[in-house]
Specification:
The chain is of the alpha+beta class and 444 residues long. It has 2 domains: 136 residues, Immunoglobulin-like (Sandwich); 241 residues, 3-Layer(aba) Sandwich (Aminopeptidase). Helix 4 packs antiparallel against helix 8. The protein starts with a helix and ends with a helix. Bound molecules: zinc ion.
C-alpha cells in the first residue's frame, strides 16, 4: 500500500511539473506575441507620430506603364502653403520624397502627381522596403503638417511586377489598411516573375484575314510581322520576357472584327500584364508617293520623351525621315497625338441610338486609335465594355492598371523609297526600335 501511494504521489508531481511547464510556455509565447505587437505598434507610431487627425482622401490611383499616379484632396486651410510633397516613409528611415502638384479648392486643396499619365512614382526605382505614403504640407513659416491617406476609390489593392533586369524582378503590392490611421502602403519584395506576367507586349498590326495596306504586291500585315518578330528576338536577348500578339500562323478568321474577342489582340495584351505595348504598322495614303517617313502615335496627356526617342532612333538607325504628313494632330517631328473629333463623337452617339445602346463616354481627349486607348484602361479612357454586342468586350476597359502604348508607323508602304528601305533594311528599323526600348527602360 505504502509503496503504491508513494508512486501515485510521484505521478501527481510529474503532472504538476508538466502543467507548470505548459503554463510557463504559454505565458512566454503570449509575452512574445505582446512584445512583437508592441514592437509593431512602436514602429507604426514612428511613422504616424506627427500625422494630423484629418486624413487625405485618395480619389484616383492608377498604374500606367511603370508609374503610379495618384490624385486626392485634403480639407485644410489652404493659405500660406509653400509646397506639397508625397513622402514614402519607411520604418528604417530610407524615406523618399517628391513634390506634388496641387490646386486650391473651396475648402482645401486637390493634389496630384502630374498632369501626364506616364509620370508619377516610378515603380521600377523603388528598393525593397515598405513605404507608407504620407502627404506633407510645407507652410511658408517653415512648419510642416503630415497627413495619412484614405482610399476613397473603388479600386482595392493591386500587384505590380517590375521589368526583368539582370534576371531579377520585384513585386510591389500597393495596398490600404488601417492601424491608428487609414494608410496607403507600397510593399516591395524580391520575387520571380509569374508565368502569366510579361515585361513587354509587341503587336504586329493586322494579320489573318486582314492584310492591312497593300502595295506593289506587298502586304502591311507581313512586313509588320517581320519587323515585330525581330524586335521580339532582340528584346529576348536582353533577358526581357516578351509577348507577341500573333506569329503568322493565325487563320483567316483572325481579322479586324476579332480585336475584342476573348483571345483577340486587346484581351491577350491585357492578360499579358506587360508594362508596355508597341504596335508596329506601315502607313498608306490615297496618292502613292505623296507622303513618307516615320510617325509615332501616342495617347494624349503623355510625357512624349519615349515617343520622341522612337522617332529619333528609327530615323537615325533606319536612315529614313520624320513623316512629311503635316496635319492638325502632329505635335513635333514624327510625333502624332490623334484624338476623336467632334463629328466622330457625334457619329458614335448616332450609331448607339440606332443600335439601341447607351452612347460611350468619349470626349475630344479620348485617343482615336483603339490600340492606344483600350490597352491603357481608365488612364486612357478605354470604353469598349460590351454594350455594343457586335464588337465584343475589352475585359480590361475599367482597369486601373494599363499598358503604356505606342503605335509605330515605320514608313509608308505606298512610298517607293520607304518600301525599298523596309524590304532591304529591316534590321535598321529593328535597331531603332530596340535601342529606344533599351534606353527608356534602363537596360544595358
Ligand atoms: Zn496598319
Amino acid at each position: 500500500m505504502e509503496q503504491k501511494s508513494k508512486e501515485k504521489k510521484k505521478k501527481n508531481n510529474t503532472w504538476k511539473y508538466i502543467l507548470a511547464i505548459v503554463i510557463i510556455f504559454i505565458a512566454l509565447a503570449d509575452a512574445y506575441v505582446i512584445f512583437l505587437d508592441s514592437n509593431k505598434k512602436m514602429k507604426t507610431r514612428d511613422i504616424f507620430e506627427d500625422v494630423e487627425k484629418t486624413e487625405a482622401s485618395l480619389t484616383e490611383y492608377i498604374v500606367y506603364g511603370t508609374h503610379l499616379r495618384i490624385k486626392g484632396n485634403l480639407l485644410i486651410d489652404n493659405e500660406n502653403i509653400q509646397n506639397i510633397n508625397l513622402c514614402l516613409m519607411t520604418i528604417n528611415k530610407k524615406d523618399l520624397e517628391a513634390e506634388l502638384k496641387y490646386t486650391k479648392t473651396a475648402n482645401g486643396i486637390e493634389f496630384y502627381t502630374s498632369e501626364f499619365i506616364n509620370e508619377g512614382i516610378d515603380l521600377e526605382q523603388l528598393d525593397i522596403n515598405e513605404y507608407y505614403a504620407i502627404i506633407k504640407v510645407n507652410k511658408t513659416d517653415g512648419k510642416s503638417q503630415y497627413y495619412s491617406i484614405k482610399n476613397q476609390t473603388d479600386y482595392p489593392s493591386i500587384e505590380y511586377y517590375t521589368i526583368t533586369k539582370n534576371g531579377k524582378n520585384n513585386k510591389i503590392d500597393i495596398k490600404f489598411g488601417q492601424k491608428v490611421y487609414d494608410y496607403m502602403m507600397l510593399q516591395v519584395k524580391n520575387t520571380y516573375l509569374p508565368k502569366d506576367v510579361y515585361d513587354i507586349a509587341i503587336d504586329a498590326g493586322h494579320g489573318g484575314g486582314d492584310p492591312g495596306a497593300e502595295y506593289g504586291g506587298y502586304r502591311e500585315a507581313d512586313l509588320a510581322l517581320k519587323c515585330a518578330k525581330e524586335v521580339k528576338q532582340e528584346l529576348e536577348k536582353l533577358d526581357l520576357k516578351v509577348m507577341i500578339t500573333r506569329d503568322g500562323t493565325e487563320g483567316k478568321e483572325y481579322n479586324a472584327g476579332t480585336v475584342y474577342k476573348e483571345n483577340g489582340r486587346i484581351n491577350i495584351i491585357g492578360k499579358s500584364k506587360a508594362k508596355y505595348v508597341f504596335s508596329i504598322h506601315l502607313n498608306s495614303i490615297d496618292k502613292p508617293n505623296s507622303q513618307s517617313g516615320v510617325e509615332i502615335y501616342a495617347p494624349p496627356k503623355m510625357n512624349l520623351d519615349f515617343a520622341k526617342a522612337f522617332a529619333n532612333n528609327i530615323v537615325k538607325y533606319a536612315n529614313t525621315n520624320y513623316s512629311t504628313l503635316d496635319i492638325r494632330y502632329k505635335v513635333s517631328n514624327g510625333i502624332y497625338v490623334r484624338t476623336f473629333k467632334d463629328w466622330e463623337i457625334q457619329d458614335s452617339i448616332n450609331e448607339a441610338k440606332t443600335k439601341g445602346y447607351k452612347p460611350y463616354d468619349m470626349t475630344e481627349e479620348t485617343p482615336y486609335l483603339y490600340m492606344l486607348r483600350e490597352t491603357g484602361g481608365i488612364a486612357t479612357g478605354a470604353y469598349v465594355d460590351g454594350r455594343n454586342a457586335q464588337y465584343g468586350k475589352n475585359l480590361f476597359y475599367d482597369s486601373n492598371i494599363g499598358l503604356e502604348a505606342y503605335l509605330l508607323e515605320i514608313g509608308y508602304i505606298n512610298n517607293d523609297n520607304d518600301l525599298n528601305n523596309i524590304l532591304n533594311n529591316n534590321s535598321g528599323y529593328v535597331k531603332g526600335i530596340v535601342q529606344t526600348i533599351k534606353e527608356k527602360i534602363n537596360i544595358d
